[in-house]
Write a structure and sequence with these properties.
The complex is a heterodimer. By secondary structure, chain A is mainly alpha-helical. Chain A contains eleven helices and no strands. The radius of gyration of chain A is 19 Å and the shape is elongated. The longest helix of chain B has 24 residues, at 74-97. Chain B has a seven-stranded mixed beta sheet, with no helix packed on it. Chain B has a seven-stranded antiparallel beta sheet with strand order 2-3-6-9-10-13-14. In chain B, strands 16-19-18 form a three-stranded mixed beta sheet. In chain B, helix 1 (7-23) packs across helix 3 (43-64). The chains are: A mainly alpha, B alpha+beta. Chains A and B meet through helix 1, helix 2, helix 3, helix 5 and helix 6 of A and helix 1, helix 3, helix 4 and strand 2 of B.
Chain lengths: 193, 317
């Protein structure tokens, strides 16, 4: 029987998203230069979105590793997106999720800390809106009244907060910077399409 | 159709839709504008799921007690923390049962290079004629460098030290990157990121720390007998790209590097030619290119016989 949409969203939020940063870091190391990790991660979420039941997935972390791996392999077969010299031996790849559960708890907790630090760093209005909405469950309409601003303005702040969270869940920005060359390339390619 | 959106652009739009769905302003199952947006680009469905999941993730943070320093009564906060600790403890007990006894074995032949992603997020790159055994345990990551040279980029995990054994030489890291190259009576340890600790089996009281940019030769019987030199990590790792980068090595040293990778062996017939210094970048599997470069620059003569390429000084006319 199909699960409710809300259940799937909640499962992705608690079992997949906290591991995205780890998978991205792994992809960066594994594929070296010339791999558009954003595209791979994006595609993995698309595949998740196609499922109408996720109860058969034992580990969200393992699922994300496995799915991104498959996507990279398919890209290699289909085109020249991935540098072939870096991935020729991917047959040797073996991802059983043998990470002990404690580590997974820790990974989740680490992401939560990251998000917490990020919320604290949001501009003050955005932070107050975000905390009222998410932590205290106040409706956008009430927040608008409290601040004396339009609901549209509240939505803008809420969107801004969410964008920042999404960015933070990608992982360590410093690591991302060291891959600057990567981003250049992927941007060029996107443009030329 | 307009220019294809970048992934971050799709993510930003998805953030708007997710916020509206969350506010109850849009019904995710029945909203014409949302459906239209989703149908225009198949990537958008994934981006929306991710954005909604992120909101759910933040809510989960609240449930776990403490994403936001909320001035809640202290006892409740402590209790939440205890619940979390309890869960972690139970998880760690389960982890013990998940011990994986089997070691995975990876190896390369002559001239091969292999990148192996490990399940903990670390990566091992094997150079030519190298082999490692990898054993992942709940409390330790154990790697044996059976032969050759390997570069390790270690995923940070203080709970599970990452220890490489090369004969009797040990190298321990938590989250860092380094190369271990087995030698006849020890191993070269080259650190490209962070710090590692290295020692010789049986001499655990003589642990030496090696920091990024340094290379240590660790003797198999005496870790105190260690030589440290500063080195250019990027150049030393050129092999990961299948390259040999020469910056003032002698012809003799360069030849030794090429011969690690190829069936076709280079030799040099003349001692003064052997001591000439060379600069350049070559594919490790193309010794003839190197021979040709030496021939052009230093005026050497190339003679190929079977699997041997011999470099000799130019004949004098």
């Amino acid at each position: 029987m199909a699960q409710s949409r809300k259940d799937i969203v909640a499962w992705v939020g608690s079992h997949v998203l906290p591991h995205e940063a780890a998978v991205r870091a792994w992809l960066r190391r594994w594929t070296g230069r010339g791999q558009d990790i954003d595209d791979v991660i994006q595609e993995a979420y698309c595949r998740l979105a196609e499922l109408d039941d996720v109860t058969h997935i034992g580990s969200g972390r393992a699922y994300l590793f496995q799915t991104t791996r498959n996507i990279v392999l398919e890209q290699v077969r289909r085109s020249k997106i991935v540098r072939i010299d870096n991935v020729t031996d991917m047959g040797a790849l073996n991802i059983d999720d043998e990470t002990p559960p404690l580590d997974r708890v820790v990974a989740g907790a680490r992401e939560l800390q990251r998000v917490q630090a990020l919320i604290e760093r949001l501009p003050s209005k955005c932070r107050r809106v975000f905390i009222l909405r998410r932590i205290h469950g106040v409706s956008q309409r009430e927040i608008a009244k409290m601040f004396g601003i339009s609901e549209n303005a509240v939505e803008k702040q809420a969107v801004r907060g969410l964008k920042a969270i999404l960015k933070a869940l990608e992982g360590d920005e410093r690591t991302a910077e060291s891959q600057g060359e990567n981003h250049e390339r992927s941007r060029d390619r996107t443009r030329s399409r | 159709m307009s220019v294809r959106e970048t992934v971050p652009e799709v993510a930003d739009e998805a953030a708007v839709w997710a916020t509206r769905i969350d506010a109850g302003a849009v019904d995710p199952n029945n909203d014409a504008a949302l459906r239209h947006w989703l149908e225009e680009d198949p990537r958008r469905r994934g981006a929306l799921l991710r954005a909604e999941a992120a909101l759910s993730f933040v809510d989960r943070a609240r449930a776990l007690g403490g994403v936001v320093p909320k001035p809640s009564p202290r006892p409740i906060w402590i209790r939440r923390k205890l619940v979390f600790l309890g869960a972690a403890l139970a998880a760690s007990l389960a982890g013990v049962l998940l011990l994986l006894p089997g070691a995975l074995h990876y190896s390369t032949g002559l001239g091969q290079m292999l990148n192996v992603p490990l399940t903990d997020g670390s990566v091992v790159s094997l150079n030519t004629l190298s082999a490692v055994d990898v054993t992942m345990r709940a409390k330790a990551r154990e790697i044996t460098l059976v032969r050759g040279e390997a570069w390790f980029q270690v995923a940070h995990d203080v709970q599970r030290p990452f220890v490489v054994s090369a004969g009797r030489v040990r190298v321990r890291a938590v989250g860092t990157a380094f190369t271990v190259y087995r030698q006849d009576h020890g191993a070269d340890v080259l650190v490209t990121e962070g710090v590692v600790e290295t020692w010789t089996a049986g001499k655990e009281d003589q642990i030496v720390r090696v920091a990024a940019g340094s290379k240590a030769y660790v003797d198999e019987y005496d870790s105190a007998k260690l030589t440290l030199v500063t080195t250019d990590g990027a150049r030393a790792l050129a092999w990961r790209e299948g390259q040999i980068v020469l910056e003032g090595e002698t012809v003799k040293e360069a030849i030794a590097q090429f011969n690690r990778y190829n069936t076709i062996k280079l030799t040099v017939a003349d001692s003064s030619l052997a001591e000439e210094k060379v600069v350049g970048q070559f594919r490790a599997t193309e010794p003839m290119r190197f021979a040709e470069a030496v021939s052009t620059i230093l005026g050497a003569t190339i003679t190929q016989q079977g699997d041997t390429i011999q470099l000799s000084p130019a004949r004098r006319h």
